[in-house]
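Quiz preparation item.
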């Protein structure tokens, strides 16, 4: 297999770089690649990390994962891009510095916007995604969320009608559910359909891959900036178990990690509640806790310490993340939650 400067033969682990655009300073922008090429034929699984430059856990999980599988007899291949956003990594920032764009909103977009040609960030995404699409049987896009996050996996919604038949969509959904289950973190379905569209989440790497019929999911490996070792280890074990579920290795990883949301059967992401009052937030709950409708989850206080208001939730569910920073403005979000899902994971496309 050849990817950029990484060239592997069966049984090899090859590392190298894939050039994705030219820089004004005369060098190329390059993403690092690691190819673990199995001795026997089998599926090709892509694992990507750090597309948000302030999310180092995916990169470290990939390094450790490759170390664990490099001497295993492997059927198929694992292709890793530990750092999808080198410019963001250089600056410890979520976005790339080419126009400050979120790189994870530019996958699977055809061409430019009217008269405007595609931005350099879109070109980079196109070039990487072309390689992914050519060989991927599954894609795992490793992320982290806010500081103070309970680890979970986002399961994208699958649609049929426009781009595939219902039977094919059902198979894709079943494979997706199977792989997310093998990965082992609590599964939380993507936002509802309208919210997903509004946030351009069909053009994340995972959203684009699902659109192209490739099973893909997004683990959120705890909080950003710092690698949480226990969550990183859960990801390494999860990746090994995805290989096992794909028939690529003969043994599952020894331990499954104990991150659980017990009522995890059918939950979806929701940003809720928001505060209608500016002030300083004091949370009464933390990540991983279950909350009931009407429960006060935060107080908004003045800088002199008086309570301005109490913020309650309207939905039952788990707290996935508390938002970062204590200063809040009108209608700022306070929590990412996992709430009972009222939409099916598989749906007919109405677009
Ligand atoms: Zn991210």
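Solution:
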């Amino acid at each position: 297999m050849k990817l950029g400067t990484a060239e592997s033969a069966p049984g090899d682990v090859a590392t190298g770089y894939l050039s994705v655009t030219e820089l004004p300073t005369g060098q190329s922008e390059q993403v690092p690649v690691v190819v673990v090429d199995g001795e026997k034929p089998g599926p090709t699984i892509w694992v990507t990390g750090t597309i948000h430059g302030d999310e180092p856990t995916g990169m470290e999980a990939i390094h450790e994962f490759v170390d664990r599988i490099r001497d295993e007899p492997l059927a198929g291949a694992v292709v890793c891009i530990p750092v999808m956003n080198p410019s963001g990594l250089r600056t410890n920032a979520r976005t790339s510095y080419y126009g400050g764009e979120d790189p994870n909103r530019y996958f699977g977009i055809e061409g430019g916007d009217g008269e405007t040609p595609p931005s350099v960030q879109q070109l980079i995404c196109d070039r990487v995604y072309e390689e992914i699409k050519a060989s991927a049987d599954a894609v795992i896009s490793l992320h982290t969320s806010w500081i103070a996050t309970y680890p979970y996996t986002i399961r994208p919604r699958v649609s049929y009608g426009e781009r595939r038949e219902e039977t094919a969509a059902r198979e894709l959904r079943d494979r997706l559910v199977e792989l997310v289950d093998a990965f082992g973190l609590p599964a939380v379905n993507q936002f509802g359909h309208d919210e997903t569209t509004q946030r351009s989440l069909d053009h994340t790497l995972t959203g684009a891959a699902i659109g192209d019929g490739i099973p893909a999911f997004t683990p959120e490996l705890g909080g950003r900036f710092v690698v949480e070792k226990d969550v990183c280890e859960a990801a390494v074990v999860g990746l090994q178990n995805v290989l096992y579920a794909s028939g690529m290795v003969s043994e599952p990883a020894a331990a499954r990690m104990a991150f659980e949301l017990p009522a995890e059967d059918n939950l979806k992401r929701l940003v809720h509640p928001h505060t209608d009052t500016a002030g300083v937030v004091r949370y009464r709950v933390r990540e991983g806790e279950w909350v009931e409708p009407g429960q006060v989850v935060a107080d908004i206080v003045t800088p002199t310490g008086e309570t301005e208001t109490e913020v309650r939730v309207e939905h039952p569910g788990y707290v996935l993340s508390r938002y970062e920073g204590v200063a809040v403005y009108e209608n700022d979000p306070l929590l990412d939650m996992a709430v009972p899902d009222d939409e099916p994971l598989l749906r007919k496309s109405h677009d």
